User: Which sequence fits this backbone?
């Protein structure tokens, strides 16, 4: 095998799909759970982090950026900056 991973493309996609399901279930459970007001900021950070990880998996596996490290790095930086902006916008009213 010439790639870094010995797994086939369908196996990688199936694994990515499973991880996406777990992350989606986690963020859904967090959003439905009765969170005390003191923990709302932490729950928001956790949900946003899970969303960021899901976006990275979609970019890497489904859009094939794992084979293009230069482009993957650029997309990851843009995604991280966007998530930091969203986090800041979320935390401003929570912290006031």
Assistant:
């Amino acid at each position: 095998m010439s790639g870094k991973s010995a797994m086939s493309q369908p196996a990688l996609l199936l694994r990515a799909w499973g991880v996406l399901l777990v992350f989606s279930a986690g963020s859904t459970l967090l959003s439905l759970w009765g969170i005390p007001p003191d923990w709302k900021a932490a729950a928001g950070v956790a949900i946003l982090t899970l969303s960021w990880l899901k976006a990275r998996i979609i970019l890497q596996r489904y859009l094939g950026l794992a084979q293009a490290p230069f482009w993957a790095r650029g997309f990851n930086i843009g995604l991280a900056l966007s998530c930091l902006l969203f986090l800041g916008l979320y935390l401003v009213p929570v912290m006031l």
